[in-house]
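Q: What structure does this chain adopt?
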Amino acid sequence: MKQLALINPENVSEQEANDYFVREAVRAVVLDENNHVALLYVAKEKYYKLPGGGIEAGEDKAAALRRECQEEIGSEIKVVGELGYIVEYRKFSSLKQTSYCYLTQLKSKTGSTQFTDEEKHNRFKSVWLPIPEAL
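A:
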């Protein structure tokens, strides 16, 4: 998989990052039959993000992606292909995160989301937007 970006606004060194918590995550670009894109709107902070999240112990990337899409956008998805990965360093949380990004297609909408308490607190909402509006 190709690296798409390196996010390191605080110029964290590799040596410094050795003490960081390492997290692997998945992100999905989900397209429906009308070529609308699934996004999560974080109302508390007024921004949009792709559905996805951390890979749990014993879980492969595809399984994590399916679970996260079910939980966050209430949808079953089919993985179509790899888009690439993003590495980011966050000094304030001592975090090195690698997010693996995939192109997916909607299989079905259950409509039932299962947001975490933190996501509820931040007022997450799943939305489907036309591609030009999503960009």
